[in-house]
Write a structure and sequence with these properties.
By secondary structure, the chain is of the alpha/beta class. The chain is built from six helices and ten strands; from the N terminus they run βαββαβαβααββββαβ.
């Protein structure tokens, strides 16, 4: 497939790019600073731009089969409204360019069904990263309220830089087996790319954790 990855120079984004290339996809990496990606491949195209620039976003989305977003806030303790505007630009451009498949990396701390996840996730964590959670909620709403998109919102547990294992749990209402659930970015990338091949979680919000 021809896929576009937003946030490609971030920790999860780099895993998405490398794994997608190993699966023989053609990848366009949307980045603000191409030097941070540090990946070379004949099936990799780099698009330098800012998600706030609608024209650049639309040009990157043209002729893609699917869009994956691993956009993350630079400061976990503050709201980042630029990313909200970015997701709005992405969804608007996808409609205009007739690209419907959108896989978005979110966080399981979003308020919907959060009470299922235990005291730390439900009550403590939102105190410290309230801004990030609110941002994800607003971005999720933009995606969900768009009837023209075939979306999957992946609600990740606490991210680590651990290795790829391929051994993780996923489901809409799975709960932690310990105090705090974790998942490696490599396994998140694996799960996101798997959504390109199936429809189990079409228009759904699966959680992923060990």
């Amino acid at each position: 497939m021809r896929i576009l990855v937003f946030g490609a120079s971030g920790a999860t984004g780099r895993n998405l790019v490398s794994q997608a290339l190993s699966q023989e996809h053609s990848v366009t990496a949307f980045v603000r600073d191409p030097s941070k990606l540090n990946v070379k491949h004949e099936r990799l195209k780099t698009c330098k731009g800012d998600v706030q620039d609608y024209r650049t976003v639309e040009n990157a989305i043209t002729d893609q089969d699917a869009v994956l977003s691993a956009l993350g806030a630079s400061n976990p303790f503050k709201r980042d409204l630029t990313l909200i505007r970015g997701v709005q630009n992405i969804t608007t451009a996808m409609i205009k360019r007739n690209v419907s498949r959108f896989i978005y990396q979110s966080f399981l701390g979003v308020s919907e069904h959060r009470s299922e996840l235990g005291f730390l996730i439900a009550r403590v964590l939102p105190i410290f990263i309230k801004g990030v959670i609110l941002d994800h909620k607003e971005k999720e709403n933009i995606i969900v309220n768009n009837n023209h998109l075939s979306w999957t919102i992946v609600r990740c547990s606490i991210l680590t830089n651990g290795p790829f294992t391929g051994n993780y749990r996923d489901g809409e209402h799975i709960t932690p087996t310990g105090i705090m659930p974790f998942i490696s970015r490599a396994d998140v990338a694996d799960f996101m790319l798997k959504q390109l091949k199936g429809f189990k979680y079409l228009s759904k919000k699966p959680r992923i954790m060990y």
